[in-house]
Known about the structure:
By secondary structure, this protein is an alpha/beta fold. The chain is 45% helix and 15% strand. The chain has a six-stranded mixed sheet, with helices on both faces. It has a five-stranded parallel sheet with strand order 8-5-6-7-15, sandwiched between helices. A two-stranded antiparallel sheet has the order 1-2. The mean pLDDT is 95. InterPro entries: Ser/Thr_deHydtase_PyrdxlP-BS (IPR000634), Thr_synth_N (IPR029144), Thr_synth_N_sf (IPR037158), Thr_synthase-like (IPR004450), Threonine_Synthase (IPR051166), TrpB-like_PALP (IPR001926), TrpB-like_PALP_sf (IPR036052). This is Threonine synthase.
Amino acid sequence: MKYISTRGQAPVLSFEEAMLTGLARDGGLYVPEEIPTFSEDDIAALAGLSYEDAAFRVMKPFIGDAFDDREFRSIIGRAYEGFEHIARAPLKQLDSNHFLLELFHGPTLAFKDFAMQLIGQLFQASLARSGNRVTIVGATSGDTGSAAIEAFAGLDNVDVFVLYPHGRVSEVQRRQMTTPDAENVHAIALDGHFDDCQARLKDMFNDHAFRDEVGLAGVNSINWARVLAQVVYYFTSAVSLGAPHRNVSFTVPTGNFGDIFAGSIAKRMGLPIDRLVIATNQNDILHRCMTTGEYRTDKVIPSISPSMDIQVSSNFERALFDAYGRDGAAVAQLMEELKSGGFKVSQGALEALREDYDSGMATEDETLATISHIAEVTGEVLCPHSAVGVKVAEEMRNPEVPMITLATAHPAKFPDAVEEATGDRPGLPPFMASLYDRPERVTEAKNDLAALQSLIRERRTT
Ligand SMILES: *Cc1c(COP(=O)(O)O)cnc(C)c1O
């Protein structure tokens, strides 16, 4: 299995190389050269398997010979053993033909643990073999950073630096990043928005000298291995509702487009997905783009679903690459135009996108109203991101096709919004109860590339 860049100018890499690299050298994102397909029998055979066994089968065709079967199975086993639910991604019913896929039973209570725990173990195995050391730098709107710090804390041959927007993550998210005491993990509060964090991260990757000097690696949602890990739960949930013999649809609370893009991979592998619905909060560049064809950045407006407060949706580039017939030069041109504010998607590409995706958005009031309504009629307490998904799913769904809405975080990660909606403050699960008592460790930094680079050079332990 080979991986190519969405901008067509970077070297073709193996799975392991693409995973260790993150962003391609031409600024693009790695995608598989071809998508492997599963027959109906292959999909039917997933029924009744453990999450780990299904994960092995779904991901195996993408990793080539990077790891032998025994090693890959044990990597997957270690990745998910810290989850608090034996099913890993349990499915709950909300209404007739509307289901909630609970992706928040991992160690940091958000779906990002699915990918990050796996990638931590993959890096560890790969670096142990090569003897190389790497510096992982990540940008986060909250959940990626905590998931990365949790996944890599104490692992060998790796330092992790996480840039998060100062004052713009929830207290639980911040504490999950600042309280682990392993020497190799570093939380950095950047004076700016998430998009600034993401821009500085891209700058570091595009500074090839720095990149080579510190052995820079990325585990943001642009990393292909993360997308791959997320393909698995589309299969396990669809199969438990009757796939391959029955179609299902998914609604996905979306920011950087990694999670929903994984759904489109599952679909191309042969999973019978009817609709993939993009659900955004008031930062709705994706919904506007799907509606009008204009992808134009706007100011980020902080919301109660902060993990979706973005204007530039990095993984959307992968969807554009496919919509433009895998024309890397066309994608490079669009990304050039994006630097000065945006671009118009061609008619043909827009039609291709609409074949795969629907879209909708939820305002702040609609999000709160959904949390409160769903708690009242089902007893299920949603986090604000999941509520954005449920609101859009209810609006868009065909009652005849089962709809699965992804619940991306535990409500206790966003207690203020949930309390405002329901009157009750959701408590942390017992295994995290001491979070508010642990000492914090954080470095504040200016939104400045050179300053960040020296900070990283100085603090690296490897
Ligand atoms: C990251 C995140 C999202 C958005 O996921 P993308 O893959 O960036 O689209 C939604 N909800 C929560 C809770 C998240 O942490």
